[in-house]
Amino acid sequence: MRHATSGDPSVHTRRIAGVRSGWSRCVLAVLALTLVAASAACGTDSAATSSGQRGPSTATLADLDPVPIGPEPTPTLPATVRSFDGTDVTVTDSSRIVAVDRYGTLAQIVYALGMGPKLIGRSTTAAFPAVRDVPNVAGGNGALNVEGLLAQRPSVFLTDSVTVTPPLREQLRAAGVNVVFFDPQRTMEGVVPQIEAVAAALGVPDQGKALGKRTHDEIAAATAAVPKPDPQLTMAFLYLRSTAITFLAGPGSGADSLIAALGGKDAGAALPEPFVSITSEAMIAAAPDLLIVMSDGLKSVGGVDGLQKVPGIAQTPAGRNKRVVDMSDAVVLSFGPNTGRVITALSEAVYGTRPA
């Protein structure tokens, strides 16, 4: 019987084949490990990079002022309207208007109706350039300065049921202030009804219908032009006022409606309230691909780098990619005459595309 030896050609061939096979397996193993590591590093962030852009961006409007629907109109008064608190209010004079709400919406509507010259009081949130010199009678959180309001001698006070509490309501009425309340909720569907309600209270219903139609058409066109990525981007709206005041927006905040218009999935959809304090657990569980913030709020935490220090942000896909879109506080949640332009600007910043 012949034994195989190292001098046997068939044995030598088998040894070479075995070495090559082992080397191939090692190479394949290294490649597999490399691919696994790469997937672990970026796989969870795929939606952020395939549907949007990396890094921060700013959504901008060429002009923050609402565009008036026409020249200053002549009101038809008296006008009796149903206030949002359920009472009928008769407005006999709209020559001195104070408009206050948490989003600055009412002041924007007054201006866009062509009645900017009659606006003699506003809130901090009504911060567009055209009203910069109008006296501020309420803070950004809606806290009303009653003395400041009464000093303006308003003929009509436009506000909402969140900003003015029932006791304050009675105090104003006892002082002879004619108060008309409006819906405090901010949704896309509510933009046009809000415009028409304000116009009716001021005695300019025709201007309200015209402004409402223009705004509706702009919103419809802007929404139709938003890209439809698959998968959807998970978006979180953050309210920031220094690192000590940080909130994640949820249902009823207005941000949910804005995110829907942008074709996104709302990271705060499961929250129990419109705004909830940010925690590491909540942010990591929400796992947003994109963060939308107000420009001044972003500055208050030290910019994008400072935002990384807010609990949980750095552990999200948005935090890892620094995927942050900021927009002026004066317009981003105003839900008024600028809404169509806001959607277009945000869409461009989020997806990196311009409408055709």
Describe this structure in words.
This protein has 356 residues and is α/β, with parallel strands linked by helices. It has two domains: 45-64 and 228-351, 3-Layer(aba) Sandwich (Rossmann fold), CATH 3.40.50; 79-203, 3-Layer(aba) Sandwich (Rossmann fold), CATH 3.40.50.1980. The protein has 13 helices and 14 strands. It has helices spanning 9-42, 46-50, 105-115, 146-151, 166-174, 191-201, 205-224, 255-261, 280-286, 295-300, 303-307, 317-321, 339-351, and strands at 57-59, 79-82, 88-91, 97-99, 119-123, 136-138, 156-160, 179-182, 234-240, 246-249, 265-266, 275-277, 290-294, 324-327. Strands 1, 9, 10, 11, 12, 13 and 14 form a seven-stranded mixed sheet that branches. Strands 6-5-4-7-8 form a five-stranded parallel sheet, with helices on both faces. Strands 2-3 form a two-stranded antiparallel sheet. α3 (105-115) crosses α6 (191-201) and α7 runs parallel beside α13. Residues 1-44 have low confidence and may be disordered.
